Amino acid sequence: MSTVTSARERKAGPAVKPPASSTEARSASVLSTLRRQWRRTLLVAVVLLWVVLWAVLHGTQTLEIGGADKTDVHLWLNSVRDAFDSARTNSAFFEYVVQPITDGVNGLVTFLQSLFSQGTATRPVPQVGWLGVVALLAWLTFTFAGIRSMILVAVCVLLFGFFGYWQQSIDTLIVTFVTVVLCAVVGLPLGIWMARSKRASSVLTPVLDLMQTLPSFAYLAPLALVFGIGPAAAIVTTIIYSLPPLVRITEHGIRNVSPTTLEAVTSMGGTAWQTLVKVQLPMARRTIVVGINQCTMAALSMATIAALINGPGLGQPVLQSLQSLDVGGAFVSGLAIVLMAVMLDRTTTAASERSVVAARFQKRSRSGLMPGPKRRVTIVTIGAVLAGVAVYLSHSYLALAQFPASPDLGSPLASAVSNATQWVVNTFAGFTGWLKDTVTAALVDPLQSLLAQAPWWVMVIVLLGVALALGGLRAAAVTVVCEAVILGTGLWNESMKTLATTLVATLLVIVAAMALGVWMGRSKIVDSAIRPILDALQTIPSFVYLVPALALFGPTRFTAIIAAFCYGVPIATKLVADGIRGVSPVTVEASESMGTTSWQMISKVQLPMSRSAVVLAANQGLLYVLSMVVVGGLVGGGGLGYLVVAGFSQSQLFGKGLAAGIAITALGVMLDRITKYTAARLGRD
Amino acid sequence: MSASVIEPTSSRRAARQEDGNRPALKVEGLWKIFGPKADKILGTPDAQLSRKELQSKTGCLAAVKDVSFEVARGEVFVVMGLSGSGKSTLVRLLTRLIEPSAGTVTIDGEDVTQASKTKLRTLRRNHMAMVFQQFGLLPHRKVIDNVAYGLEVRGEGKAARLARAQEMVDLVGLSGYERSFPDQLSGGMQQRVGLARALAVDPEVLLFDEPFSALDPLIRRDMQNEVCRLHEEVGKTMIFITHDLQEALKLGDRILIMRDGEIVQIGTPAEVVANPADDYVRDFVSEVPRSHVLTLRYVVRPPRPGEELDGPVMQADRIVRDAAQQVLRSSQPVRVFDGEDFLGVVDDDDILRVVVAEEAP
Ligand SMILES: Nc1ncnc2c1ncn2[C@@H]1O[C@H](COP(=O)(O)OP(=O)(O)OP(=O)(O)O)[C@@H](O)[C@H]1O
Ligand SMILES: [Mg+2]
Questions:
Q1: What is the pLDDT of residue B287?
Q2: Which H or E run contains B241?
Q3: ipTM of this complex prediction, to 2 decimal places
Q4: How many contacts (CB atoms, under 8 Å) link A and B?
Q5: B274 and B254: one domain?
Q6: B313 beta partners
Q7: Looking at residue A97, what DSSP letter applies?
């Protein structure tokens, strides 16, 4: 008996004294069972309490405020804005820190625009006309990425022009380019530093985490407040969004340089600098280029959203079309963005593959920039001359400077899409309407009512209890802080509505991701068929997802849910599939040998063993969904997103929009932490 | 187990010892304890605990415990022991790739353990070079640039270092592969690159950490012969880590046997095989064909009364196997001398006992 007890006891915790009698032993074991089950007990208790209190009290103390109502906080934020505006002219900080940055970035962008995309007061067309730009881009891509990328780029760029978005496309390229260069200047040294210093890494990692958790929508307003509406704010926003992947991947690449090689190099007495330059950077080169690719894609995605704060580029026409519910126009400009994404992704990938080959050739033939056979060098040289001629011609002749107005592919395409959409909507109105109504009635409305109609203090307790049960103490602590912040913004009710929408979309994402992910994880063929589609979907900037959703469902809450669903599914599915695939093949084989059916295999082996991957998928799904639900404010999504959008357009609602941004952030951090801690806990035991 | 076993002069190639008695490498009281608060353990009675006890008591792991030895100039000194016995840690302590917890390492009269960062770098650049089990080559550099790397970091001109590297590439038999990248070479060839890289800086001491364990047996034998050949040609002092006894016996002038971070025995191959210090070593050497290792010194006996003392003469450090034929052919017992001193005699029976005993253990 005594050995049995002590064995069980060790599990429960070594601090407990051995029970003297068997009754005590039994009660101890009940206690320990309870202790093991406390999470579930707590969860059930919280949900029961919630439903009961909701039934009794719903509709009271919901902290609901009207669309135009403003609380003191909002008014105060308005006054902060005014203070900022006046500080811009008379504060030292603004004068010597912010203004130089703003002017520098704005100046750079304006300069590049005057070179490549827009005329100025003195010259109605840019210095380099469309022919020159096309030739330059083609030459650059050929040099760094090869002939196939060159053709892709040339075709895409010309299409942008024929769609009628020449200037906006080049603006987007400029903004993306400037962002990526700035990111590289800041991010590469940061990543290297983090790889070399544990302390730097432990300080900066949470900052990067935060930068990646923040829904981008949330920091548009504060940044616009500091840097003013325009390119500077747009570029800073874009940097915040696209810097973390570059830094992380750089750190990872340098950290992963083989320790044996490093040891060998140290044993030969290389200095730290020699080791970095001669060993670590060259060996991490490939990874770093992947980081640049990720950074570029993120920059493009964010650069389009930055249209909301007047960032130049393709985001503008999408935004205008979305706001005027012009599906055709939104489709064409959205298509241009997608093409741009494909083009940048393919080109940077090809460039990274080429850089590896190039590194080998370069040493063989010391031919400077361009490696490889002599023929290539000749072609590149000839290309440079041709590009130079094209630049000169386009500078001198108006016809080659201004993109020709015809053939115009944009307008016919837009009206064709409008008609097609009309037809689809009319034909399938029954189905889309049914889908919309069903999901709204069955999921959105009840959940929204439960969350938003319950008294605020009930929800505070419920969220806290759920956080404690799922994520443990640390999650609960974060939740308390976030709840306080949300209450402080005076937008509790709106936040609960947004939370409801987010949860519904996330639920749908998880269901779809589990189904697809399990299927992919179990079959190589399915995986290789679906993964490229998911990869492609992931390169599409978030903004664009709104277009088809709007076309099919019109401006409603459901539209935002559908867009968020489409946006969240790819990443979540990939995570689930990787988790399932990660289950040890030995375990799978062993259970197979015991006669497990496929369903048993999924439910008893593969899903339980990859549950932390599933929760991680939920976490990523949640964050993606939240950012999209908020953007959905543009197309009738309501909730916090709508307030943010309204804050941009109506000056007296600025404070409220800013408060909504803060509430979104708090909501995002709360959801992220709860799911992250849950995933960590599940991964542990 | 004790330092008294150290007898550098008894080494087979002790004759190589060039400048006086100063050893190429001297290690005194070297310790390495991994873990939190490792420094606090030294000097307390805890330090004397066995590795297991120490680990369960403090959570620290004594990887190297109070190790002292000397290596003579030009000697091949082999360190061997089972996996986890602390060999890699020991060899890394010698170049301070791992910081020692206590003790001193002197290479060429320079105290490595006290050296400043710059001093240490100079030492590493000029006085020692290491060959690694996993090669540790730079995948983005061609063979020739890999070999030249050590010269490059110490700032030698391009032409000079490439010429020297080419010499080394030729020396290790890789001529024609200078422009290949490491991943285009087989494992054995990659390790030749590692070898050339180490030789290129012309170090006093060469350190090998299980350099051939990742290679298949045939190539391993090739490489062992290569090391023997290089040692004949360049005569460097070598510290060679291995867990393969055959390799140790083949290459080593002397062998240090480690267990759980401690020295169990130091001695020539013959000493170790003839007089294992304890069961651990006995276990190790039980499979060894003794006649291939033992010298006549270990079989010699005093002449019996009435035995004729006019047989052939042999030196005591002849390996039994090499002497066997001659002894068996001779009708009289062979007389064994150590230099001028008469040690005793060896007859057919004595030889057969060694040879037969190993076949029927
Ligand atoms: N950085 C470290 N931190 C903690 N313990 C270590 C560290 N490096 C080595 N050890 C421990 O020290 C002991 C000796 O390791 P070492 O690598 O020196 O053994 P080895 O004799 O080289 O073994 P092998 O033949 O497997 O290479 C091992 O028990 C190992 O776990
Ligand atoms: Mg080792």
A1: 79
A2: strand B237-242
A3: 0.77
A4: 75
A5: yes
A6: B335
A7: I
Residue B18 in contact with residue B73, Cβ under 8 Å? Answer: yes
> From the CA of A266, how many Å to the nearest CA of chain B?
7
Residue among B112, B138, B201 with most chain A CBs within 10 A, to mutate: B138
β-partners of residue B79 are: B241, B256
B123: nearest Cα among B87, B81, B152, B95: B95
Q: Who wins on pLDDT, A414 or B123?
A: B123
User: For A493-684, CATH number?
Assistant: 1.10.3720.10
Span of A8-22, A251-265, B119-133 with lowest mean pLDDT: A8-22
Q: Least CB-CB distance to B140: which of A269, A271, A282?
A: A282
> Tell me: the pLDDT tens digits for A324-382?
878 888 888 888 988 898 899 888 888 888 777 766 665 444 444 444 567 777 888 88
B 133-152 residues with CB below 8 A of A? 133-142, 145, 149-150, 152
Asked if residue B330 and residue B220 are part of one domain, the reply reads no
User: How many domains are contained in chain B?
Assistant: 2
Q: Within 10 A of A189 (CB to CB), how many other CB atoms are there? A: 12
Sheet with B262-267: list strands edge to edge. Answer: B128-131, B205-209, B237-242, B76-81, B254-259, B262-267
Same domain, B23 and B113: yes
CATH fold for domain A100-116+168-352: MetI-like fold (1.10.3720)
Q: How far is the CA of B274 from the centre of ligand 2 (A)?
A: 27
Rounded Cα gap, residues A519 and A612, in angstroms = 18
Per residue in A617-675, pLDDT (tens digit) is: 888 888 888 888 888 888 877 788 888 888 877 778 888 888 888 898 899 889 988 98
Query: Which residues on A lie below 8 Å from B121 (Cβ)?
Result: 269, 271
Lay out the sheet containing B61-71: strands in order across. Answer: B61-71, B25-34, B102-107, B110-111
